[in-house]
Amino acid sequence: MGRRQSVKDVILIGGGIMSATLGIMLKRLSPGMEISIYEANVTPGMEASNAWNNAGTGHAGICELYMTPPVGVHGGVDVTKAISVFAQYERSLQFWAYAVREGLIERARDFIHPMPHLSFVRTDEQVAYLRERAARLAEHHFFQSMEFTTNREKIGDWAPLLTTGRRDGVRLGASRMVTGTEVDFGSLAGKLCEWLERQPRCEVNTRHRVTGLQETSAGWRVAVRNLHTGERRTDAARFVFVGAGGGSLPLLQMAGITESRGYGAFPVGGQWLVCTNPEVVAKHHAKIYGQATMGTSPSMALPHLDTRIIGDKRSILFGPFTKLTTRFLDEAGSMFDLVRSIRRDNLGTLVHSGFHNLPLVKYMLRQGTQGIAARLAILRQFYPEAKADDWRLVDAGIRVQVIKKVNGRGSSIHFETEILTNHERTISALLGASPGASISADLMFGVVRRCFPQVLQTGAAKACMDEMLPGYEVDLANPENLNFYHRVASKTSGTLGLATATSQSRRGPGETLASLTT
């Protein structure tokens, strides 16, 4: 019989960026809290947060075309989602800058770098869409430094790989902001967990898997197995956060909360084409997103050509490509994860979703069986001179697409990020994927505000929160707060060593969004 411990304040399941962020916020707001993290891998940040398991894009709505869908019959574009995500990402930047200023993290360059973000399209129809998108975004102060061009020479200046050797007569278009970022979320999560582990009444338990969750009058009883020794024990906490990436849904099913009924999930493995040839890598300094490669526009179907900086090594990755899998976690998963997640309450949801998303199912099956030649052909739509010898195929982790009921009937595949909380506010879980880690600070502040309102009642806590997320109650997207936004963003960028809007390169004659007609 395993030993039983006293009831802790918080147990965080999973050592990724979400759990680490929530742990830091709670510990800074209420230093006396007792917090434990349980992570199944040998170090924190090895699943979805791992640098090779995501694109490292600080998702801010700058280049991600799926966030700005076309609307109406007259070529309009809805930019609402991009503006919202940009504001959320600003909160993450603020939080990371706070962590650097306060010494929680030694150096910003260990996890974040300035990186231009571009959108790139081909064909007249896509160029017209991108022009309208850029114009609508540039009307907002978040995106006022956005540039747009159809000039091949200018596009080549921004990203030489896109135009060098391109001999087709297809019309090209690109938009750019230099204020984008490249982030190593795995390194960031690890550094935040290291700080937490050094604090009194905090512990980070790696190679420990949570095997059961049972609700009690005091909160939750948590069954844990030590993967080193095989020892089983029971822990307890008043509040549990499930930040286990693809493993979140099975844990919620263990917990049996009403709010999770009807939710299903389908795992999608990923792969990148990766280039480390120094001559090629030196020519590319950008993250470039294109249009979806299928009729619908889930983020998984968006090809992108990205500079990556992991440690002190630079590379280029292209993808993602689908890899068929039944596992929910890359390192700590099982081939039976999908089967075990199917329950009576979500079977109908899964079947309905598959039937009504046949184009997506066919897309994943087709991509999952593609050979290297077919993937290189897609790459050459971006980089015409790509040589097969310069690129190798690497696994890119697993994302678990959440499938949920809609209005009690039917279902939908949920491509974004969601926090599910029970009625009693004693357990919350992260579900979904992109923009995910990029908006971690905003999401975790939402958990604090919803589940720990008492910790924000004192003047000291409010002052601390304002240091972590300056003006946390201020709507950064509201034009009335323009001066406040610029002041805070400038300080944040300075701390993190990032580009600012004032560093945006000057547009050439005829290249302003208002006057560009070519």
What layout of secondary structure does this protein have?
Layout: E1 4-13, H1 17-29, E2 35-39, E3 70-71, E4 76-77, H2 80-101, E5 112-114, E6 117-122, H3 124-138, E7 147-149, H4 152-158, H5 160-163, E8 172-177, E9 181-183, H6 185-197, E10 202-206, E11 208-216, E12 219-226, E13 232-242, H7 248-255, E14 264-275, H8 278-281, E15 287-289, E16 304-310, E17 313-323, H9 337-341, H10 344-356, H11 358-368, H12 372-379, E18 391-406, E19 409-414, E20 417-421, E21 427-432, H13 440-451, H14 459-468, H15 482-496
Parallel strand pairs: 1-2, 1-13, 2-10, 6-15, 13-21
Antiparallel strand pairs: 3-4, 5-9, 6-8, 7-8, 11-12, 12-13, 14-17, 14-18, 15-16, 16-17, 18-19, 20-21
What can you see in these coordinates?
The protein has one domain: FAD/NAD(P)-binding domain, CATH 3.50.50.60. Helix content is 31%, strand content 27%. It has 15 helices and 21 strands. A 9-stranded mixed beta sheet has the order 7-8-6-15-16-17-14-18-19, sandwiched between helices. Helix 1 packs parallel to helix 6 and helix 2 packs across helix 15. The C terminus is likely disordered.
Characteristic key phrases:
single chain; 518 residues; alpha+beta; FAD/NAD(P)-binding domain; 9-stranded mixed β-sheet; 8-stranded mixed β-sheet; 21 strands; globular; disordered C terminus
Total domain count: 1
Biggest pleated-sheet summary: 9 strands, mixed
Form type: globular
Number of strands: 21
Mean pLDDT: 86
Structural class designation: alpha+beta
As for the CATH topology, it is FAD/NAD(P)-binding domain
Helical residue percent?
A: 25-40%
Unreliable parts? 294-299, 503-518
CATH superfamily: FAD/NAD(P)-binding domain
Radius of gyration: 23 Å
Strand order of the largest sheet: 7-8-6-15-16-17-14-18-19
Distance between the termini: 75 Å
Question: Please, how many helices?
Answer: 15
Question: What is the name of the CATH architecture?
Answer: 3-Layer(bba) Sandwich
Fraction in beta strands: 25-35%
CATH class: Alpha Beta
